[in-house]
Write a structure and sequence with these properties.
This protein has helices spanning 2-20, 27-39; strands spanning 67-72, 78-89, 107-110, 117-120, 136-145, 154-155, 161-162, 170-172, 178-181, 189-190, 194-195, 207-209, 215-224, 227-231, 234-238, 245-250, 256-260. The chain is mainly β. Helix 1 runs antiparallel to helix 2 (27-39). It starts with a helix and ends with a strand.
Length: 264
């Protein structure tokens, strides 16, 4: 029965790839949303990993880093992921590069919570390089490995393996993990908005090449702004506190898991 359910899940994943054009904005979203319906009861966290000291100004003493897990891209093998450091970014100069913003997701609500403004990059930043009130970025230092030669191929309805990208060893950073708000669980997923390895070489801005036995390190950024709601026909904003944020990932077996980030 469990094997049958996984086959159904894989079919849904494959179907979503075929009908969405496989753009950067759909892979993580479609795969996670469709699979989540079938895996809502499989959310057991992985055991804590070895503790690595982190910046005390940004995390508390209970933080457990690195966080390690395995993710699968449509079922053809798994990539190993290690989140080595987590920090809050509020200044443009704190980023490793200004070239990593992903245009379709580099936006957030900020400013006056009674009359919030929707800012897009580069208007997210004030003249002095600071982000507008209510906006910050969670930046993850990540190492990804491909020990067993996983590919991004998927299996179609006929059972044939199909190349998802122009190269079978291309993957997308947004499929590795997300940030979620543990307090507001409705529309709580915060999508990738910054990728330090962004390049114009591939069709998708968050694509990266990782061949068999290779390892690569980069930074993933998630913009956090006001949670928006309507009151008396007016848009209002509620700050999302760093301490309420969790790391979320869709694992190799299509279950999901979350980890506390201990941000302050």
């Amino acid at each position: 029965m469990k094997h049958h359910v996984h086959n159904i899940i894989l079919f849904l994943v494959t179907l979503s790839f075929l009908f969405t054009g496989c753009s950067a904005s759909t892979i993580g979203l479609k795969m996670a949303d469709q699979i989540k319906e079938h895996t809502s009861s499989s959310t057991d966290s992985l055991p804590p990993q070895d503790v690595t000291p982190s910046d005390p100004a940004e995390t508390d003493d209970n933080a457990s880093l690195p966080i390690t897990f395995s993710v699968s891209h449509a079922g053809d093998g798994a990539l190993g992921v290690s989140v080595n450091q987590v920090r809050i970014i509020r200044q443009l100069e704190e980023l490793p590069s200004t070239d990593g913003f992903i245009d379709s997701f580099a936006s957030a609500y900020g400013g006056d919570p009674e009359n919030p403004t929707h800012y897009e990059y580069p208007d997210l930043f004030c003249a002095d390089g600071s982000m507008h009130d209510g906006i910050y970025m969670v930046l993850l230092d990540v190492t990804v490995s491909n020990p067993d030669g996983a590919t991004s191929r998927y299996q179609n309805i006929n059972g044939d393996w199909v190349d998802h990208y122009e190269d079978p060893y291309l993957f997308q950073a947004q499929a590795l993990c997300r940030i979620i708000d543990s307090i507001n669980l409705t529309d709580s997923h915060i999508d990738l908005s910054y990728f330090s390895g962004k390049t114009d070489t591939w069709k998708n801005p968050d694509a990266f090449f990782l061949g068999p036995g290779e390892e690569k390190s980069f930074q993933l950024g998630f913009l956090v702004g006001y949670q928006i709601y309507i009151q008396d026909d007016q848009i209002k904003g509620t700050p999302i506190l760093p301490e309420s944020l969790l790391l979320w990932a869709l694992l190799e077996d299509f279950s999901t898991s979350t980890w506390e980030l201990h941000l302050q």
